[in-house]
Design a protein that fits this description.
451 residues, 19 strands, PCN-bd_Tpept, Penicillin-binding protein 2, Beta-lactam/transpept, alpha+beta, Beta-lactamase
């Protein structure tokens, strides 16, 4: 009993306090002005309009200055809670003022003000990501590999939290309306060729002489009863592992995949958090690596090029890119920098924290070299003339038989001491389009242009 009590206080209590079904905390909204949510640079992302708070403290007074742009990151307070409004509900409705001030407020019928939440979100990066994705379905997740700060989390289609009451009936009655789904963390996407990062890592682990790899691509690899083709049947000719990665050669990688030990491949995937919990404090879906001892040759080859039943979210893929950028170490992602009381005192703050070593430094360095090749002469060469160094992997995941794909780019960029890691997916694009890489370039350009 004592052990459980301690566990509850340390681990579970905050989640239960923030649970949307816990009406005890919400009852405070009649006497406490809900705190403000700020961006990294002090811009108001959500606040309570205090003009009429003496007579009306309902959530209808909540204002969202950036409308659709931050909808999934910030969330809503009505019809259940989402995003930061849910995650920080307790803090936003807790004044954290001293006892004397509370007594004075009680006797004078003054309303208290909840704590303010200062986030790591960048208005500049969020706007750029949102505008580059506008008009499509998709998501972007951007973070600092060195600290773990989440700079941006965009999901489209989106909604304006200020008008949620007006559109709620439509959302609730249409099973195909997915505006409330945060695709950045809850998306279950087929990864396509971005998964070749994991296939490459496993090949390196099983073959110490991986630098001696050579493959002659004629545009197609044949297996027992089926074949795997490169995009448009293109023949890449003689390739090293670096070339195969840069050109995203399906023939080479399906052959590589077929040579791997499934049990070890699965372990590497789970080392990189597939089939595992993710270090996120917001709602998310776990990624799935499906191979096991009963998997067929077809299953294995499909999985090795990112097809089949493998699924992943942009947030998870951005974490993998972040670890590669940080020499194998994943810093715990976080979106709340600090909580501040209405009197200006810092109630709590987030420390930079190492979450896990996903790979060795040597493995990360090798993947960095391969990802640089993608942006130098491979499928991401649009990055070539940038004034920063870019590293990445493109992907086109087949989603139907009409040549539509999910377009991916995963990677990072650096300039001097500044680094930024990213994952972007755009749904149902014409095969062969470079939509995701174009979107990422816009974000990189905007980030490194700001001093």
């Amino acid at each position: 009993m004592i052990g459980y009590y301690l566990y509850f206080v340390v681990v579970d209590s905050h989640d239960i306090l923030n649970n949307p079904y816990n009406h005890r905390i919400d009852s405070q909204s009649s006497t406490v002005i809900r705190g403000t949510i700020y961006s990294k640079n002090g811009k108001k992302l959500a606040y309570t309009d205090t003009k009429n708070t003496e007579s009306d403290l309902t959530d209808d007074t909540r204002e969202y200055p950036y409308g659709n742009v931050f909808s999934h990151a910030i969330g809503i307070t009505t019809h259940g809670k989402y995003g930061l409004e849910k995650m920080c509900n307790y803090d936003l409705l807790s004044s954290q003022t001293n006892v004397i001030s509370k007594i004075v407020d009680d006797f004078t019928d003054n309303t208290e003000k909840g704590c303010d939440v200062h986030t790591t979100l960048s208005v500049n990066i969020q706007k750029t990501a949102y505008n580059s994705l506008k008009g499509y379905k998709g998501a972007a997740f951007v973070m600092n590999p060195t600290t773990g700060e989440i700079y941006s989390m965009v999901s489209l289609p989106s909604y304006d939290p200020s008008t949620i009451n007006d559109i709620w009936d439509q959302i609730a009655n249409d099973p195909n309306d997915s505006r409330l789904v945060n695709r950045a963390t809850q998306g279950k996407y087929i990864p396509g060729s971005i998964f070749k990062i994991l296939t490459t890592l496993e090949y390196m682990r099983e073959n110490k002489n991986y630098n001696d790899f050579s493959y002659n691509c004629n545009g197609q690899a044949n297996f027992g009863g089926f074949s795997i083709k490169c995009f448009n049947g293109n023949s890449h000719g003689s390739e090293t592992l670096k070339d195969a990665f840069a050109y995203s050669c399906n023939s080479a990688f399906s052959t590589i995949g077929n040579s791997l030990k499934v049990s070890k491949f699965k372990k590497t995937a789970e080392d990189l958090m597939f089939n595992q919990k993710l270090p996120l404090d917001m709602d998310y879906n776990q990624s799935v690596f499906p191979l096991d001892k009963d998997s067929t040759e077809f299953d294995i080859t499909q999985t090795s090029i990112g097809q089949g039943k493998t699924t992943i979210s942009p947030a998870h893929m951005a974490m993998i890119a972040s670890a590669i950028a940080n020499d194998g170490v994943l810093m715990k992602p976080y979106i709340v920098d600090h909580i501040e009381s209405s009197s200006g005192n810092v109630v709590s703050y987030t420390k930079h924290e190492k979450y896990k070593t996903l790979m060795t430094k040597a493995e990360a360095k090798q993947l960095q070299e391969y990802m640089a090749a993608v942006c130098e002469y491979g499928t991401g060469r649009i990055m070539t003339n940038s004034d920063y160094s870019a590293y990445g992997k493109t992907g086109t995941a087949e989603v139907d038989k009409k040549d539509n794909v999910n377009s991916w780019f995963v990677g990072y960029a650096k300039k001097g001491k500044r680094k930024i890691a990213i994952a972007v997916v755009i749904e149902n694009m014409p095969e062969g389009s470079n939509s995701a890489v174009n979107c990422v370039k816009e974000i990189f350009d905007s980030y490194f242009d700001k001093k």
